[in-house]
Amino acid sequence: MAITASMVAELRAKTDAPMMECKKALTEADGDMAKAEELLRVKLGTKAGKAASRIAAEGVISAFVEGNNGAIIEVNSETDFVSKNDSFLALANAAAKLVSEKNPADVAALGALAYEQDGFGPTLEDVRKGLIGKIGENMSFRRFKRFEGTSLALYLHGTRIGVMVEFEGDAQAAKDVAMHVAAMKPVALTSADVPAELIEKERAVAAAKAEESGKPADIAAKMVEGSVQKFLKEVSLFNQIFVKAADGKQTVEQMLKAANTTIKSFTLYVVGEGIEKKVDDFAAEVAAQVAAAKGQ
Predict the structure, then answer these.
(1) Best label site of 81, 167, 221, 294, fewest CB within 10 Å?
(2) pLDDT digits (tens, 9 = 90+) for 89-99
(3) Which of 213, 234, 235 is closest to 224 using CA atoms?
């Protein structure tokens, strides 16, 4: 049977597979559209297996708020191009809503929840796997946080930075704080909440600098303590200078006091934060292969 361009186009629209793959499948299936689609699904499945081993360090931050409940989630992809794909964005938004409504314990429990999209299902994990095959790129649910029974302020900076703030008081002040967090990236609410390992790391750097200065021990010790205190102010939300401060001096804490607003917590997600990105260094790869060949 002759395989026409319109048949190839129809199969491509159904499966999103490359044009040549569609033509091959139709030829193999002797023009039977359903059989060709099945052949491609099998091929796409193996493609999904290969893609699943690749590092996904791009992606989006998605969030959902309804009343006093909400959720924020990071969903990763391999390339920035796919992070703009409508199907991928729909998956991320659906996942955020499911976290808020169903309260899954972890990523595995989230994947097991009922969801259908783009002809895939019946679970969110099935849709994820189906889209990996369809798009040909790994994608994964990385982390999420759910909020319940509290006033929430959400700020999304594009799709790459997301902040959720739990608060009591003025909604606009809380929204401003969420924007401030996205811009200034504090690590804790107050100096007392800064993780000990971060303080120790800063102390070690300051001690090395003080030692290099050659100053007497007592002065060096004061230099170290001064550096640590400065660091604590810079990374704790309440001590930071508020980004919208008209006088350039007002701290976030002072702004909140004036607005009679309390911030209970903030959650900041930045896409790909802490994920090791694979950099293909072709020259180094060739050199390694040559060295291995010589060693044989």
Answers:
(1) 294
(2) 999 999 999 99
(3) 213
